[in-house]
Write a structure and sequence with these properties.
This protein has 305 residues and is α/β, with parallel strands linked by helices. 51% of the residues lie in helices and 9% in strands. The mean pLDDT is 93.
């Protein structure tokens, strides 16, 4: 019996052309695409999260996109279980699973397994949330200078989590994460490396395209009272709802979403460039999606159907 095809991971910052390349690669190789984006799994916000359009969905099988209501939480653990089941189903059909997305932690859950970190402690979290961001940062620098050097100390959520790990385990979070550095066997993937200024330009243009497609009405229709904690963090959700509520202007919302998305793309690039299991594939803005797909196919010796 032949071995089932190993998954191929296709990653990169938002706006680098992952989805278009994945679609053509799937058509070339007989593959099926599995979502690895923390927010594209949410059903009610396809415009906001730039989910594949109906024409793309009709060309090759896609999995997990729009599969979770915005009332449902999703985290790395739930994603790992769901995505591994989807990968196994694609493999059972002797087809290539193409895992496409830019959520680094979700992809790492598949390529490395989950980090040996403790779950959150609600009482400890409440205590830490009473502390000012400046004091949180100072405490982290004392307990875990390694994490303090890597994290954005202006982000209380990340600093609080790192402190929580230190206090629950008695070990620096940075040391525990280091033990999570080696990937599982058989991991193969690519990081699409498009020049940053091109990525930023595409992000700016895509934000305007979202508005033209109706993102303000889409976000306004979401029930704020039943929104899950995870879904509520989707970039642009609150900016565009504020437009519908007449709390801000559309130009202000567009500028805010563009800036936040650019910052997110920069963090994605930092994350994935540390991932040694993936091949860095430089992409020119002149490359077509088909040329990128062919480049990936040749790198891994994938057969055409």
């Amino acid at each position: 019996m032949s071995r089932p095809p190993l998954p191929l991971y296709l990653t990169g910052p938002t706006g680098c052309g992952k989805s278009a390349a994945a679609l053509l690669l799937a058509e070339l190789t007989g593959g099926e695409i599995i979502c690895a984006d923390a927010y594209q799994v949410y059903r009610e916000i396809p415009i906001l999260t730039a989910q594949p359009e109906a024409a793309a969905l009709a060309r090759v099988p896609h999995h997990l996109y729009g599969s979770v209501p915005v009332t449902g939480d999703m985290d790395a653990g739930r994603f790992e279980q769901t995505a591994l089941a989807a990968i196994a189903a694609v493999q059972s059909r002797d087809r290539l699973p193409i895992v496409c997305g830019g959520s680094g932690l979700y992809i790492k859950a598949l390529t490395h397994g989950l980090s040996p970190l403790p779950p959150g402690d609600p009482e400890l979290r409440r205590q830490l949330e009473l502390i000012s961001p400046e004091e949180l940062a100072d405490r982290l620098m004392q307990l875990d200078p390694g994490s303090a050097a890597q994290l954005n100390l202006q982000n209380p959520r990340h600093v609080t989590r790192a402190l929580e790990i230190c206090l629950l385990t008695g070990q620096p979070a940075s040391e525990l994460k280091q033990s999570w550095a080696m990937p599982r066997s058989g991991v193969r993937g690519v990081y699409l490396d498009l020049p940053r200024e091109i990525v930023y330009g595409r992000i700016n243009a895509r934000t305007h395209a979202m508005v033209a497609a109706g993102v303000v009405a889409e976000t306004a229709a979401v029930d704020e009272d039943t929104l899950s904690a995870t879904a509520s963090k989707a970039i642009g959700l609150w900016d565009f709802r504020a437009v519908a509520d007449e709390a801000t202007s559309l130009p202000e919302a567009i500028a805010s979403v563009q800036q936040t998305t650019r910052h997110y793309a920069k963090r994605q690039a930092t994350w994935f460039k540390r991932e040694t299991a993936f091949v860095n594939v430089p992409v020119s803005p002149l490359d077509t999606a088909l040329e990128t797909a062919e480049k990936i196919r040749r790198i891994f010796g994938l057969k055409k159907i």
